Amino acid sequence: MTAEPPIVIEHREHVWYLLYQAAQLEHMIMCQYLFAEFSLKSDGLTADQQAAVDRWRQELHGIAVQEMLHLALVANLMSAIGAAPTFNRPNFPQSCGPFPPSIQMRLLPFGEAALTHFLFLERPEGMERVDAAGFIACDPPPEPVVAGEIFPRAQEFATVGHLYRGIRDGLTALAARVGEEQVFCGSPAAQATAELFRWPEMVAVTDLKSACAAIDEIIEQGEGAQGDWREAHYGRFLKVWEEYTALRAADPGFEPAHPALGAFTRQPFDVREPQPLIGDPGTMVLAELCNLAYEAILWLLTRFFTHTDESEEELGVLVGAAIAMMAGVLRPLGTELARRPAGPAHPGRTAGPAFEMYYVMDNVVPWRAAAWTVLTERLHQIVGRCAPHAAGDPVIAAAADRAKAVADAVDACGARYR
Fold first, then answer.
1. Which segments constitute the Iminophenyl-pyruvate dimer synthase domain (predicted)?
2. Domain coverage including residue 170
């Protein structure tokens, strides 16, 4: 068993940097799981095959939801130490970027490659696994941070759990050195709670004990507590992989997913290598709507986690709007997108949600009235973009109805400030 190299944390900015990395990591892992979920077929299979695919869809969705929880817990940790939570991240694919060279991100349809990649990402401490074909580390690991470095920078971590153990140990040492009150200087009112998110596992972080509880929740759901990974993400993916392998052995022609491609509406601004672009006009419409819904969810969550003087009712509206956009708009549009042709340049391939980041997403202004005006405007723009296509496309029509309900709810809540 290979020992994990120590992660060095000497001051707040070291923690801040690592939590920012953790937020990007959780965000991109969640998107990979959603892409695989959306790619799964709903017809054209035998009854037994379809039953298995439906189980895998639910499993992927459940794990993706837990990754969303992890992202929210990281946001709580950031807020607790005085760092503004962010939902910005780089575009896919990421081979040599914000993470150590062994941790790479790519959108893959459900299948052997995707499952191999997911098992690699979720592997427990000390477990040796090889990533899927094509995931090749291209840079040497960063040099270890040494005592006395004032500016934070990338550090090597072998697994997701390794990163969080380093953050937990660093926070513990930092609190012992300067005091918990100094470390956890954020306002308790800024914390996401179990009541607001209706997640029993949500931990409001206000001190070292609650910070360690939040980190342990992430580690246990991902790789398992004390090496018991059977009910953790790793064990759940392994069970899916075993079932998938058995069904493929029984029927080598079994294809449970559409050949989805993480195709973009335009070349991403932060990826140097040319990326596949959507060439079908109807698919392009759907992809843009999907990206708008995704962007709106991020803006709603950003306002929640960096709110100022919103009431409990208003915070509930923000959370409810984000969940409704995810379930009622992004999920059906993303699922349908994985069934639409990517275009003539990609014969035989369907599209899929690339979760495009069109620019570096930063926070909106802190003033409540202006922030809610911006949110309401963007939500109504989504409804307006759906309108010309709703009559001829039942998926877009249903998404438009859900988006309008969300926009009206946010508009009604924000109208009191205008």
1. 19-239
2. 1-257
